[in-house]
Amino acid sequence: VLYQSLVNVGQRWYSFGWESQLLETGFLAIWLVPVFSIKPLPVNTPTSKVVIYGYRWLLFRIMLGAGLIKIRGDACWHDLTCMNYHYETQPVPNPLSWFLHHLPSHWHQMEVMGNHVVELVLPWLLLVPHRTITAVGGSAQILFQIIIIISGNFSFLNWLTIIPAIFCFDDGYMSVLFSNVTRTVTHVTDKVSRQHRERPKRYQRAVLNGMIGALLAFLSIPVVQNLLSSSQQMNTSFDSFRLVNTYGAFGSITKERTEVVLEGTSALNLEEKGIQWQEYEFKCKPGRVDRRPCLISPYHYRLDWLMWFAAFQTYQHNPWFISLVGKLLEGDHGVRGLIAFDPFINSTKPPTFIRAQHYQYQYTSFESPHYWNRKYLRPYMPPVSLSHLRSYREQNRWFRKVKPLEMSSLFRTISFPKVDFMVGGLIFVLIILFLKLFSREMDMYYESSFGNAESQIKKLLATAEPLDEPKEKVE
Length: 475
Known about the structure:
- This protein has 17 helices and eight strands.
- The protein has helices at about 1-10, 15-30, 50-70, 85-90, 95-100, 105-120, 130-150, 155-165, 170-175, 180-195, 200-230, 300-310, 320-330, 335, 385-395, 405-410, 420-465, and strands at about 235, 245, 255-265, 280, 280, 340, 355-365, 370-385.
- The strands form three sheets. The protein has a four-stranded antiparallel beta sheet with strand order 4-3-7-8. Strands 1-2 form a two-stranded antiparallel sheet. A two-stranded antiparallel sheet has the order 5-6.
- Helix 10 (about 180-195) packs across helix 17.
- The radius of gyration is 28 Å and the shape is elongated.
């Protein structure tokens, strides 16, 4: 709920696809653990299969959506040339990106072909109800995400995508990651749980899982329709809570890299001769040509990413960019903390004018001591001062004090949600009411039934021998 608020309030700064993916992953995680127990291995509470298949369904949509948006998008995905440009033009390259860009062209063609196989063919293995086939599909997706992590800085996107892939492996595969003691406790707990199968809790859990499954199925309808549509949208939410979303990445590939470079001066008059403009350096986005690309994943420099998008447009289309310039002209310490180098940090006063220049960046060859070559293109934003921005601020009502809404005016601003949101919200409310209704009965049930079960587990553990491998497959 807290991160949902951050994403909504953050708007452009939290508009990346992995924000919705994190919300959906977190929602499924709510139902992954027992509701009424904080024990790591509670009795008679097997992992919900609805959640397991919910995570596999999430991974399927992530990968298939990314594959479909590519074959419906840029022509370079058809002629197998996209990877010739990707490493150079991706939002935030890392040190290895420079080397990968210089690989032979036929290698890049194989990369595109492999991408199509992983995103369009292998996701179907995730839906096959066979443990070996599902494990193969999950392993391929994890390996694919690791390769992407190595090749560029894509925030926590690929790290987050590995999480649903873990649910492609049952305990038979995952047990090798745990100690003999943990495997023994798990085996004994499962053995005791099987003796309590006819307890009322099974029925209650089945009802709860059914309601969660119905909610996921209902909210998946517009997502499936979007996947089948020729005008597919990527990274879109069809419900206000962003519980089930559609995903995709790099439907189009930029063929050349352009960057916006900010420069400031302390000159009092732009008519002066010999004005010295000094560059601001961002934490990770390309600036100085001799600076090595950074390595920050899974951390996310949001300002650097938005500067990459801003280079495709004009500053008029990005009001936040004008606000950034205004804050730098004021010498705002919070904004200064978002950049790596402020040439006026040791000055008694902030700059009087700031301008933005548009450059084209290209990787250098192996013979060059630098990482980048850059060529000046055009001015991106003319020099401005605080007095120039005053009218713009007043027009957009920046820093203007707004009176708190009275209760009557607050109710007048409330609008009715869409029908699908109302139905989805109703199902969610029913789940909460269900948990409230049975909380007292569940407490009584634990006290009367599981007291004996826990004592039985202790007796079995006292006589159990450590298991090298689990004797039974446990979902």
